[in-house]
Design brief:
The structure holds three protein chains of three kinds.
Chain A: H1 2-31, H2 38-54, H3 60-83, H4 91-113, E1 118-119, E2 129-131, E3 136-138, H5 140-162, H6 164-174, H7 176-181, H8 186-211, E4 214-215, H9 221-234, H10 239-260, H11 265-279
Antiparallel strand pairs in A: 1-4, 2-3
Helix pairs in contact in A: 1-5, 1-8, 1-9, 1-10, 2-3, 2-4, 2-8, 2-9, 3-8, 5-6, 5-8, 6-8, 9-10, 10-11
Chain B: H1 2-10, H2 12-33, H3 39-64, H4 72-90, H5 97-123, H6 128-146, E1 150-154, E2 157-161, E3 174-178, E4 183-184, H7 192-211, H8 213-223, H9 225-230, H10 236-258, E5 263-264, H11 271-284, H12 289-305, H13 313-329, H14 331-356
Antiparallel strand pairs in B: 1-2, 1-3, 4-5
Helix pairs in contact in B: 2-7, 3-7, 3-10, 3-11, 3-12, 4-5, 4-6, 4-10, 5-10, 7-8, 7-10, 11-12
Chain C: H1 2-25, H2 31-35, E1 47-54, H3 61-80, E2 85-92, H4 97-110, E3 114-115, H5 121-134, E4 137-140, E5 155-157, H6 162-175, E6 181-187, H7 191-207, E7 210-217, H8 226-234, E8 239-242, H9 246-258, E9 264-267, E10 289-292, H10 301-314, H11 320-339, H12 347-358, E11 363-365, E12 368-373, E13 379-380, E14 384-389, E15 392-395
Parallel strand pairs in C: 1-2, 1-3, 3-4, 4-5, 6-7, 6-8, 8-9, 9-10
Antiparallel strand pairs in C: 10-14, 11-12, 12-13, 14-15
The chains are: A mainly alpha, B mainly alpha, C alpha/beta.
């Protein structure tokens, strides 16, 4: 029974990683930048939801919606002020700016909400499902998180595959200059990508904090880095890859803790990641793109 | 005569780099000796030397080889603890503090260099962001292991264990490295002079590597891999060399850093420090060694100089960082700047012509 | 372009260097106002300068802030008494040894005479060596690692040391027959947690406690603690020892509640503050036992006054870090008054008299009565075991 419980624990944290990774991979795939501030947008989303539900006493759904609106606007503002002026500059320059934005958001959050951790109230209200006479527990958060990540994955796949905007995004991702020649507004498309990515971050923030209740200004940074790892693991830029990478990372992490060592779990998890990347250098579902001359 | 002129012309950048470092050292050392520096500024000198070496060595990988490494602090940590253990073991064997420091730097560099080889073999098979994530992973692995490592010394020699209880130190034994707390009670050996020597050594190694035939090959690959390969450049060995040299130098810087504080813990050598060093490199300019030297200094002193801002210190630092990035990297600003400098240049030229007449 | 930029940066470097010097030489005029809320009145010539440092940003900011607030409140009260006057300055050290030394140097430039910090053990170990070398008296409110006070004779602690808590916890659990099988969940990347854990394990072997699960987490992977909790459940632990901080403990309690695992939980002083965490359901902490020096819900009039003033001033309930810091301020005040310390004495002179005072005096504070200090700098006070019942601490004999 232990094994199944660990598996569920792993899927639980893994699906949170997956949702964060979807946002990462989306922005990376189209804007070709590592948005290290993504984790901090998640934190802002969680705080917004916390404020709406705890201070205003409104239902959790309103909290999520407010968080999504605020994060979307925040994402567009960040993109416009900090990333857009660097369009065409080295991707490393944008990476450093993203780190600056990340510092900014963390410190701003500390000034606004204080440094004391808050305990996030889970948005899931229904009782956990008990199997095998209570020996196995599947919490409501797990079910909601998995459902949400699957829905988001499917929606994103459909969006990028079927809609005009989505096709424009793929075109920009393939070849920015050619897309521009085809009459696609590249700047607008990238802004749109950030808006979607940030809205996803808000959902991820709420689900992350429902699973892991501690909310403080640095809440988003470590899961953000884990999710980035997951996105690369699955093949960065690939939407199903992010999902797969997130869940696998969660399971590997949990199984390592359960059967190998809790003390060295960080080292073992990253070692597994390295081995996988050596065998499949473009990640699990990444495309190996042959460079053309 | 012409030859000398030619030499200065082609090497003016290197000469300027050495010159600025030497002048800065002489000035700061003079001020320090004359007691004209505050304690805080005196305290910055050694860490700044360490960060300059780290930034220059990372620039070799990021700026020259064109590979994004996110685990540089891991090598720094390996070097720091190797150096601390070396210095502690040589206590009573080598009398001179400076001698022990040099031995510690050397061992720190060699151990980090070995780690560089171990990491480099798999890492350099990858490219781009995959390489970045693997270096990040190695950095975290090194941090995790060091954070659980216990090293002690007694009559029988050095003992290494994974928990305090397993260390079994004999009577009179001394714990050098104690897991999460790290090393405490370290004898501070680092001096500004040693830091200065290390910078000169680093500049010598890195600038020579860049200007060598191999260095030019590495840059060719960075700029266009396919074109470089098509003219028969095989650079795997060169990339490896740059990576290992970079790790070696980072290890030396780590030893210098570690022996400058009486307490050092593994948590320092994680992702955040790697990112800090990367910020120095990118802000100073990719492949621009002098830029790394200057930006490491400025960015180290800046948050310290902003201490008066209390709670707003880090948020303003973030704003400054973003603004500086936008100002130095934005294509639009660059365009404007080039127009302005061209115009200014024009004015000066005219004036020069005028005075000549 | 590159050259221009380099020149620009070089100019910036020179400016910042001199800005650093400048502010260091004329401290009273600039930074002090922002940094030292304790001195609302203009600093007069006769003030003793107290410095402290702690993480005011980053992960551990909540503890650094608590210490800052506790010291601020205490010195305001002391200054209002009209006797000896103190000026406080708290610097950010990001819970990092390097930054702690920078903070210490900044404070020394300012003219610090007594060090009332740092907050965390790693920082304190680095700053303690500096204090020992310079002969500055140091009394840390909360850096509890045993290695901190080994730096010199002038380094003192007001909190329990970690080994004390580890031994105390094992003794308490064994003498009260609280458990047959014990599990431990600790933070292997945090010296405080590892320090308690190590001593707890040694003492558990001595008193015959059976520890069947030792589960670690690190600051990097603390997002998910459910596996550690499940492992304790699998091993059949009827008591889980938590030598960790309140935020992670809240996670452990939440995880255990979700899988219907109800062992006894036993924690140390790091757990204090869990009930004050915004949004935390106190029902989850029902029955949790902890060793703590401070109880915010105590009926002791001195404590009540402190809690009321603190809450009114800073808008949140004090935890034991704030209480320890408050005690540090009053202990320093008591020693200074008794020894007749004046503001014109040098740091070294003050240090000598303070060592003599601290090793001979007895101090009554919020975190204990009749505290005394040994020559090595360790405090002797008894840990108080409490149990959480209906959202308040109830003393356990």
């Amino acid at each position: 029974m232990g094994f199944l419980q660990y598996l569920i624990n792993g899927i639980s944290i893994g699906s949170v990683y997956a949702i964060i990774a979807l946002g990462y991979t989306m922005v990376y795939g189209i804007a070709k930048m590592l948005n290290f501030a993504h984790g901090d947008v998640i934190m802002v989303g969680a705080y917004m939801s916390f404020c709406v539900t705890n201070y205003l006493g409104l239902p959790a759904v309103v909290g999520i919606l407010v968080a999504m609106v605020v994060c979307t606007v925040l994402g567009i503002i960040i993109e416009g002020l900090a990333y857009k002026p660097l369009r065409g500059a080295s991707s490393l320059a944008v990476l450093i700016t993203a780190i600056g934005v990340s510092y900014f958001l963390q410190n701003a959050a500390q000034l606004i909400w204080g440094s004391a951790p808050k305990n996030f109230t889970s948005i899931v209200t229904f009782a956990p499902i008990k199997l095998f006479g209570g020996q196995l527990t599947i919490t409501g958060e797990v079910i909601i998180t998995i459902l949400a990540s699957v829905v988001i994955m499917v929606a994103l796949t459909l969006f990028t595959g079927k809609t005009r905007m989505g096709k424009a995004m793929r075109a920009v991702s393939e070849d920015r200059a050619a897309a521009q020649l085809m009459g696609i507004n590249v700047n607008q498309t990238i802004s749109m990508t950030f808006a979607i990515g940030s809205a996803l971050a808000a959902i991820a923030g709420v689900l992350l904090c429902s699973t892991v209740p501690t909310l403080q200004p640095t809440t988003g940074s470590m899961p953000g880095i884990r999710a980035f790892t997951a996105a690369v693991f699955g093949g960065i830029g690939s939407i199903p890859g992010a999902m797969l990478g997130g869940i696998l990372l969660g399971i590997i992490e949990t199984m390592t803790k359960a059967y190998l060592s809790t003390q060295f779990s960080d080292a073992i998890v990253f070692l597994v990641l390295i081995v996988v990347l050596l065998v499949k250098p473009a990640g699990l579902m990444g495309k190996v793109v042959q460079e053309k001359v | 005569m012409n030859k000398i002129k030619q030499y200065f012309k082609t090497h003016s950048y290197n000469i300027a780099t050495y010159g600025i470092v030497i002048i800065a050292y002489v000035v700061m050392q003079y001020l320090s000796n004359a007691d004209m520096l505050s304690r805080s500024v005196n305290g910055y000198l050694v860490p700044i030397c360490a960060y300059i070496v780290l930034a220059v060595s990372l620039n070799l990988v990021v700026g020259i080889s064109g590979e994004l490494s996110l685990g540089h602090a891991g090598f720094m940590g390996v070097g720091a603890f190797a150096g601390i253990v070396t210095a502690a073991c040589l206590q009573g064997v080598v009398d001179s503090d400076f001698g022990r420091l040099m031995a510690a730097l050397l061992v720190g560099g060699v151990v980090a260099g070995i780690a560089g080889v171990i990491v480099g073999v798999p890492v350099l098979r990858l490219r781009g962001d995959y390489l970045a994530i693997v270096t990040l992973a190695f950095g975290e692995i090194l941090k995790n292991i060091i954070g659980n490592l216990y090293i002690g010394k007694d009559e029988t020699g050095i003992r290494v264990a994974l928990s305090q209880a397993e260390l079994h130190l004999g009577a009179g034994g001394k714990v050098i490295l104690s897991g999460a707390l790290g090393a405490t009670g370290v004898q501070k050996l680092s001096t500004f002079f040693a830091g200065f020597l290390l910078i000169l050594f680093t500049l010598f190694v890195v600038l020579n590597l860049i200007n060598s035939k191999e260095g030019r090959a590495i840059k060719a690959v960075r700029d266009n891999r396919i074109a470089a390969e098509s003219v028969g450049i095989n650079v795997t060995a060169f990339r490896m060399k740059a990576f290992v040299v970079s790790a070696f130098l980072a290890g030396m810087a780590g030893a210098l850093y570690g022996l400058n504080y009486s307490a050092v813990s593994a948590s320092k050598f994680g992702f955040n420090t790697s990112i800090d060093i990367l910020v120095f490199v990118v802000l100073g300019g990719m492949g621009n060694i002098l830029g790394s030297v200057i930006s490491a200094t400025v960015l180290y002193v800046l948050p310290e100089a902003m201490r008066g801002l209390a709670d707003y210190r880090m948020i303003l630092y973030a704003v400054v960082l973003i603004l500086v990035m936008l100002f130095t990297w934005s294509p639009k600003v660059k365009e404007i700047m080039s127009v302005v400098t061209a115009k200014l240049g024009g004015i000066f030229k005219k004036k020069e012509v005028g005075t000549n007449e | 372009m590159k050259k221009l930029f380099a020149l620009l940066m070089a100019a910036l470097m020179v400016v910042t260097m001199f800005a650093g010097c400048g502010s260091a030489e004329t401290p009273a005029t600039d930074a002090a106002g922002g940094e030292a809320p304790a001195t609302d009145a203009a600093p007069t010539a006769g003030t003793i300068k107290i410095g402290s440092s702690g993480p005011l940003t980053n992960d551990y900011a909540v503890y650094g802030k608590a210490v800052e607030y506790g010291l601020t409140l205490a010195f305001e009260e002391i200054n209002a008494l009209g006797g000896l006057q103190f000026e406080l300055r708290v610097e950010d050290d990001e819970a990092d040894a390097e930054m702690a030394v920078n903070a210490y140097n900044t404070l020394m430039d300012w003219g610090m005479q007594i060090m009332a910090g740092p907050t965390t053990s790693g920082s304190a170990a680095a700053a303690a060596a500096e204090c020992a070398a310079d002969g500055v008296f140091m009394l840390t409110p909360s850096a509890s690692d045993a290695a901190v006070i080994t730096a010199g004779d002038n380094v003192f602690q007001i909190c329990f040391t970690d080994p004390n808590q580890g031994v105390g916890s094992a003794d308490f659990i064994s003498s009260h027959n609280l458990a047959t099988k014990v599990g431990v969940i600790y933070d292997s990347s945090n010296p405080y947690s590892v320090g308690i854990y190590t001593k707890f394990m040694e003492q558990a072997a001595v008193v015959g406690l059976e520890v069947v699960a030792e589960e670690a987490f690190t600051a990097d992977n603390k997002a998910d603690l459910s596996t550690q909790v499940t492992k304790c459940q699998e091993a059949g632990c009827d008591l889980v020892f938590l030598p960790i901080y309140a935020a992670e403990a809240a996670q452990v309690l939440t995880c255990a509640d979700k899988i219907d695992y109800n062992p006894a939980f036993f924690g140390c002083d790091g757990l204090d503050g869990i009930l004050a965490t915004e949004g935390f359901d106190p029902a989850l902490a029902e029955g949790v036992m902890l060793l703590t020096p401070f109880d915010a819900s105590s009926s002791d009039p001195q404590t009540q006054e402190f809690v009321a003033n603190y809450t009114a001033k800073f808008g949140l309930e004090p935890n034991q870090f704030a209480a320890d810091a408050y005690d540090v301020a009053y202990a320093i005040y008591q020693a200074c008054t008794a020894a007749g310390v004046t503001a014109d004495m040098s740091a070294e002179e003050i240090c000598e008299t303070m060592i003599a005072q601290f090793t001979s005096m007895s101090f009554d504070g919020l975190t204990g009565d009749g505290m005394t200090w040994a020559a090595d700098g360790a405090v002797s006070k008894l840990p108080m075991a409490v149990k959480i019942e209906n959202g308040v601490y109830v003393g356990v004999e």
